[in-house]
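Our working data are protein records whose layout never changes between entries. Getting from the letters to the tokens is the skill we practise here. To make this concrete, we reproduce a full record directly below:
***
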Amino acid sequence: MSQPDNLLSALQQADMLEIDDLHAWQFSLDEAQLQAPSSAVFLQIECMDGRALRKWQFSLAEVQAAQYQADTESWTLHGADQAHHLRCFAAISGDNQDEPDNSANDSQ
């Protein structure tokens, strides 16, 4: 995934996140807030840390204020309680189309 100009674009393209060194594939964006921004929760992230369920919530303003850190390829996002480091990942997928069997090359 190429690096977007802002965290909002990165989140819209992402399939998985890493927040504070924890992998999280359960996250959601309240895209209705793009039309009428408010201080309500825009980004919600959940992941398991051992047996504990961890949750983070950020407003649209906090997401828009995030700063990209090129050295760590992460975004610094300031939440209500502290700064968090967020990385966005795109999923790798393949097709299930079988390649034709080219057994003629096997004898060489």
Observations:
- The chain has one domain: 7-91.
